[in-house]
Design a protein that fits this description.
Layout lengths: L1 E4 L9 H11 L3 E7 L11 H8 L5 E7 L7 H7 L3 E5 L6 H10 L3 E6 L17 E5 L14 H11 L6 E5 L4 H10 L3 E4 L1 H4 L4 H13 L1
Parallel strand pairs: 1-8, 2-3, 3-4, 4-5, 5-6, 6-7, 7-8
Helix pairs in contact: 1-8, 2-3, 5-6, 6-8
């Protein structure tokens, strides 16, 4: 199980310090929630912030684009230093084209699904995916409650992905208390924001998540 802490819940005045703290704690991935105020009712940060911090961190940059028409910015985020670029299936008309272009640009490609979006939208792009992100809250704000339908959706997705080398990520309300259920259902990447950054020291909190994932 990989934990990908969301910087949305870190100190926005010191992202560089947050990245240093994550590396010191033993974290390998970091999750960037990019929001445009159109696809979701919130605005966070964009490619310029990521570019400025890329040179300060060796973490795997897991970049989640909650933006309309993400195809307009693929090159920008590649140049900013994204390792994985995840786009919402609800935000683009040509999902396969976008996923293929992400890979062509040298990044891992992921597709994100809102809670009410059915899994069958992925049926014809499975070969273009390195990761599927299941939203376990409605996107836009941190600190929301975990939707209990999520483990069943993850379980169904993992069956759909049988035989493929594809990560299943869950984002929203993830905490040690629901980690075991999600991992047993088939998730192997978990995003946690306030439930991670709100519990110091971070190394001990990471250990709690990892122990829950092995339960």
């Amino acid at each position: 199980m990989i934990l990908s802490p969301s910087l949305l819940s870190a100190d926005c005045g010191d992202f560089a310090g947050a990245l240093r703290d994550l590396e010191a704690a033993g974290v390998q991935w970091v999750h960037w929630d990019v929001m445009d105020g159109r696809f979701v009712p919130n605005i966070t940060f964009g490619q310029h912030v990521i570019r400025g911090l890329r040179k300060r961190s060796s973490l795997f940059f897991d970049v989640h684009l909650m933006i309309e028409e993400p195809e307009r910015y693929l090159v920008d985020f590649r140049e900013a230093g994204a390792d994985m670029l995840v786009v919402h299936v609800e935000a683009t008309r040509h999902l396969q084209r976008v996923l293929a272009e992400i890979r062509r640009l040298g990044m891992k490609a992921g597709a994100a699904l809102n809670p009410a979006t059915p899994l069958d939208v992925l049926d014809y792009v499975l070969d273009d995916l390195d990761m599927v992100l299941i939203m376990s809250v409605n996107p836009g704000f941190g600190g929301q409650s975990f939707l209990p339908c999520t483990p069943g959706k993850v379980r169904t997705l993992r069956k759909k992905l049988a035989g493929r080398n594809c990560h299943v990520e869950v984002d929203g309300g993830v905490c040690p208390e629901n980690t075991a259920e999600l991992v047993h259902a088939g998730a192997d990447v978990l995003v946690s924001g306030s439930s991670f950054f709100g519990h110091l020291p971070l190394a001990e909190r990471l250990a709690e998540f990892e122990a829950a994932g092995r339960a």
